[in-house]
Write the structure tokens for this entry.
Amino acid sequence: LGCSNIASMSVQVWNQRAGWGMCAPLRRCKVPDLIPCRAIHVDHNDGSSSALSTVTRRRALLTATGALVAAAWVQPPASHAQAPSPAQTQVEVPFIRSDSGLLVQDIRPGQGAAPKAGDTVVVHFAGYTKGYQGKRIDNTSTRDEPYEFVLGKHQAIPAFEEAVGGMRVGGIRRVEVPGEIPSLAYPRDRAQRFTNELMPTKDGKIYRYRFGPQPAELGGQRALDFILDNTTLGDLNRTLLFDIKLLAIRPGPRA
């Protein structure tokens, strides 16, 4: 956009050296580099003012103002650009199916020691009935009571034995126990699942499982027993999900 000198009725072009154009007396206007400028000339000797009417000047002024605003807001300065959040840059680790059919996802690989058969492993875990309403079975971290078992002694269900046996201390692993592979999970036969021992809980008494991890609350055991006992449910509804963190290893006797 050029700048007009009202007194002489002529419009001067952009001054390439100074970068300024003369407007009315006692006023200057800055013309941005992003906006092209072309000369407009009105012959004041012919007595005609139609070439640069008031409407034309107003339209030109509005156009320049809009262009300035657009240039300022099209893209923020690089120094103020917002960095991507960790959630946007994090790449999700896929599940890997083991030879047994267990689905394993290492959320955070551990850097410590790896357990061996006969070692006592100490873990925090959270379990859910993934295939049916996603109800919580248990979460040991909420009450700070880790679950312990001896690896290789069949004290835990096969899915837990396999999952923890492939971890290192400090690691966090998510495992999905497919409902169509009952050999990895809790027995569906109640006689094989329970002992005759009652264990007290804060909300009642429940029978102890033969294989861990044992739900510590009545609500968690009921949710688990429901999907195992209900014959109207399909195998997909019996799928379980566990998040496991290996806290420590106590070495067992070595031969």
